[in-house]
Design brief:
The protein is α/β, with parallel strands linked by helices. The chain contains eleven helices and seven strands.
C-alpha cells in the first residue's frame, strides 16, 4: 500500500485507485488488478523489491521450489532487459541468505502481445537462459488474442531448448487447445477448466503434466465449487498433476492450497 500511496502523486491514472482487501476476486477483477500492478511496478528498484519480498514470503510459507512467472516490460525508467536483470539480482541476493528455497524464472508472453513482442520475449529468454531462466510461459487474459499471433515465437523457444508452460482451457476455446497440444507439445499446461470429453481423452492419450490451483479456480468462478473441481477426475485417471497457487488470486497460505485436494479427494 505504501507503493500505491507514493505512486498516486506521480501518476494521474492512479489517483482514484483503491485496492480492496479480500480473499475473493473474480477473473475479470484479477486482470484489472494486474493492470494496476503493472502501473505500480514501472521502476527497476520496485521490480527488485517485489521480487525479494515474493521470495521471502514463499520461503516463510514453506515453499522450497518457486517459479517466478513474469512478463519483461520496458517503461520510461527501464528496458525489458533491465527488468529481467533486477529480477535476477533479487534471486541472487536472496540465494545468499538462509531462505532454503530454489528460485527459477519463466518469462511470460502475455496474450495481449503482438507477434513482434512475443519474439522479443523469446529472444530475452534465450539470452538469459541457464542459471535462472528455464522456460517460456503463455498467459494473460484468456479472452484476448489469437493463437497464431504467438505460435512462431513459441516454436522458436522450443527449438532453442526452452521449456513451454501454457495456460490452457481457462475458457471455452477447444480449437486453440487442440492446436496447443498438437503443434506445440508443451511441457506443462495450467488450469484446464473447460474440457469436453474429446479434449480430456486427448490429454489421457498423451499426458502433459497439469498444474492446478483449486482456490484460484473456485474464487474466480472458473469452476462452481471445490467438490466439482476437475482435479478429482484427473487424479482418479492417474494423470500427472502439480498443485499450485497463484498468490494474487488467493490470500490463502500455500499449505491450505496443498491440503485442499488432499482433504477432499484422497
Amino acid at each position: 500500500m505504501d507503493l500505491l500511496e507514493r505512486k498516486r502523486s506521480m501518476r494521474a491514472d492512479l489517483k482514484d485507485v483503491t485496492l480492496k482487501h479480500t480473499v475473493e476476486r473474480s477473473l475479470p477483477e484479477c486482470f484489472q488488478l494486474f493492470d494496476i500492478i503493472h502501473k505500480l511496478t514501472d521502476e527497476p528498484e520496485t521490480i527488485y523489491r517485489i521480487a525479494c519480498e515474493m521470495i521471502e514470503d514463499f520461503s516463510q510459507d514453506g515453499c522450497r521450489y518457486l517459479e517466478i512467472r513474469t512478463t519483461p516490460r520496458a517503461t520510461s525508467s527501464m528496458t525489458a532487459e533491465d527488468y529481467i536483470r533486477r529480477v535476477i539480482a533479487a534471486i541472487d541476493d536472496c540465494a545468499a541468505r538462509p531462505l532454503d528455497i530454489t528460485v527459477k524464472v519463466l518469462l511470460s508472453i502475455n496474450r495481449a502481445m503482438d507477434s513482434t513482442q512475443a519474439h522479443q520475449v523469446v529472444e530475452l529468454a534465450k539470452k538469459f537462459a541457464g542459471k535462472y531462466v528455464v522456460g517460456i510461459d503463455l498467459s494473460g487474459n484468456p479472452a484476448v488474442g489469437e493463437f497464431d499471433t504467438w505460435l512462431l515465437a513459441l516454436q522458436q523457444a522450443r527449438e532453442h531448448g526452452l521449456k513451454l508452460s501454457i495456460h490452457f482451457a481457462e475458457v471455452n476455446n477447444k480449437t486453440e487447445c487442440v492446436r496447443i497440444l498438437q503443434e506445440l507439445k508443451p511441457d506443462r499446461i495450467g488450469h484446464a477448466c473447460c474440457l469436453d470429453e474429446e479434449l480430456f481423452k486427448l490429454l489421457l492419450a498423451r499426458p502433459v503434466p497439469l498444474e492446478v490451483c483449486l482456490t484460484s479456480n473456485v474464487i474466480t468462478k472458473s469452476v462452481p465449487c471445490y467438490d466439482e473441481h476437475h482435479f478429482k477426475q484427473f487424479f482418479e485417471a492417474h494423470y500427472p498433476l502439480c498443485i499450485c497457487m497463484i498468490r494474487v488470486f488467493s490470500a490463502h497460505h500455500l499449505q491450505r492450497n496443498i491440503n485442499m485436494p488432499l482433504v477432499r479427494f484422497l
